[in-house]
Amino acid sequence: MNLHTHFTKITSKSTHFNTISISQNPKTHHHHQHFCTKSSTVHLPLYKPHRKISQLIKIPETKPISTTTTTTSSDILRLLDCLGFPVPDALYISLIKECTELLDVNEAVLLHAHVMNNRCNKPRLGLLNRIMIMFISCGCIQNARQVFDEMSKRDFNSWAIMIAGYADNGDYEEVINLFADPKLQYILYSCSSFPVSWVFVCVLKACGKILNLTLGKQIHGWLIKSGYSDDVFVSSSLISFYGKIGAYEDGDLVFNGMSCSRNVVVWTARISNNCKEENYRQVLDVFKEMGKEGVRKNSFTFASVLSACAKISDDGNCGEQVHANAIKLGLASNSYVQCGLVNMYGKFGLINDAKRVFNVNESNRNHACWNAMLISFVQNGCLIEAIKFLYQMKAAGMQPQELWLDKLRSLCGSEILES
Q1: How confident is the model over 97-125, as pLDDT tens digits?
Q2: Positions of the PPR repeats (predicted)?
Q3: Are 8 and 220 in contact (CB under 8 A)?
């Protein structure tokens, strides 16, 4: 059975996750009881890995116990082994949490090996789930998958952790494959108390990235039948998904069909879709409507609206109004908003305004903001200022975009500029 057929079969069922309980569901048999646990709520402290490691990390060589003031988790475990003391789960959990926060790959691998090799009984499911979170946080997706594949039992949390890990790692095909697995579908069908909305957020993100409109629409239909279509996070993900696919009208239908209160994420998702559709006047209309509804805008809202203002031929008038609104809300110095303002003013030749915005928050300027200022100088023929600005960028450790560096070289009629 292929993936689309599988989802068609699922979505044809009259499934209501919010009304089915373990005791009420006639399809929940005794030998499947381990799928549905009472402690179904999961909080995933997934830390952004400092690097992503594609291959399986093997157990590193054991080092002597540290004699410095810094003691590692492997030091503690070896000391307990030498003393002949058993390691309780509470200590393992504490050490796993420490490795997760420190993103220490080698210690994570050693800790996992100790859990698996130094116990009379198999580790509990909750402990294995925490180990998967630790590996994913360290960027070791293959190690996490090895733990997942070797588990004799998996609950909803196990599947959710791997789906979140693959989504963060950019492996969107694997997100879909895991979500479509019949074992996970059985869990979703059988149990009512799982916080599934954020899992659907990951899956819809995957559908948008691989441009799978058919599958995304089937998931949308399933969400409606399951009672999750009014969840604000799911709704914002649906709007973003339809925007990435280019099905903007479907995104508007989701937005207009929401019966619950729309938050800033939902409004910003719609504004972003209008930008992608190049319907820039509509962006301003939605922005004004958002204000009338009393929804407080965030930095991402302003960044999207300012990108639309830069495309409207009104000499920057609407951009100035949006700038005033950002100042009123205390967001004008935000790096995303600052970059949008510099870009917008530069597009209309308002270099002094762009420079004024650029100089507002020197400590918080990001790489994009520096390049936006350089582009503004080059686009408006301010070549001497652009060259001087290059020295500022170099002093600040910022790398100019090669495209605009080449453009500046060409305009200057030489190749004396060095990146």
Answers
A1: 989 988 889 899 999 998 998 777 789 99
A2: 263-297, 366-400
A3: no
